[in-house]
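Good day; I would like, with your permission, to put a structural problem before you. What I wish to show you is a protein chain and, alongside it, a tokenised description of its three-dimensional fold. I would ask you to consider whether the tokens describe a fold that such a sequence might reasonably adopt. You will find the record immediately after this paragraph:
***
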Amino acid sequence: MISLHHRTPSKFQWASLIVLLILSQACTCPPLPESPRIVLDRIEGPRLPDGITTAVFKFENPTKLTVNFGGYSHCTPMMIVKQFRNHHWRLVKEDWCGTGAKNCVLSPGESVILALPLDDMFGLEPLPTRVGINVGIGVDEKYTTVWSDDVDLSTERRDPDS
């Protein structure tokens, strides 16, 4: 037969619980500061004369730190583009440079526009897509990749002026 009564916690168990509660409150981490981000701004096109549609992203630095990135100029960061195909994120495009790239800085509060042509050049399909930029943040310049949210380029809004 199964007994339905339960044991009373021991003094040690009560003390352990109190210590855990106190430590959990003492170790509460402050919220993380804002991070650099990439957001889809709009889809433009198709534009004449080439008829290419362009996804326009904004690379923003809402932090109080400088953000370093590789680019061709302050306004042209080197981008990475991945698309979700066959249950995996696949690299579709990664900017590179033989001679013209340099270290660029995005100061606190600044932003730059990224234009991603949606033509057949890169084999982009109407699949979930993300855009990334390798960045170094602050004095330590710990490099990481900042990614946009996943965007389905086939269903995103069009620029009303196009």
Notes: The first strand starts at residue 37 and ends at 47. Helices lie at 11-26. Confidence is low (pLDDT under 50) at residues 26-32, 156-162. The chain has one domain: 37-152.
